[in-house]
Amino acid sequence: MPNKTIYVSDDDLALYKRAQEIAGNLSSAISTALRRYVEMEEGRLEGYDEITVRVGRGAGRKQRFSGVLLAEGGRSSKDGYEAFKVYRSRTGKFVLHADRRDQYKQGATKPAGTDDGGWRSWIGTLGLTDSSWSMAQGEATLYVVETVAELRELIPDDLYALVEEAANQPAVEDLDI
């Protein structure tokens, strides 16, 4: 195995020592970090972003991937609000982040004049309404599918049309202007 010498500035010496303590094998830690750096930078150069989303109930957990946003939208009803974001991953798969929220917290009262649908139903998530009511915690899900057609049953028709249109476009179009 070839040896490579890495010169460390005095300012970074504490960082390297801490990495050695955590990883046990500094060479392995450096290789892992470089692999992730190269992967993310190559994706960024191709027009992809690092996407981090929350999934699960309530605060949930975070999941991260490299992708480009194709379309987003939502729909509300008397029961709640659904927000959708559709991405194309760097590997060519389609990723749907669906965030579903119930209308109101159990026992909360609506402000006077608020109807059961439309923008007033979900505006509480923006913090722009009376503090006596707010949206309930919902559940967010991440779906990964191979084709756009597999999204048809998961998202509203108007959003599907946008995704279908954007699916074959490059992540970044370089203009010669």
UniProtKB/TrEMBL annotation:
It comes from the Bacteria. InterPro entries: EXLDI. NCBIfam families: EXLDI. This is EXLDI family protein. It comes from Kribbella lupini.
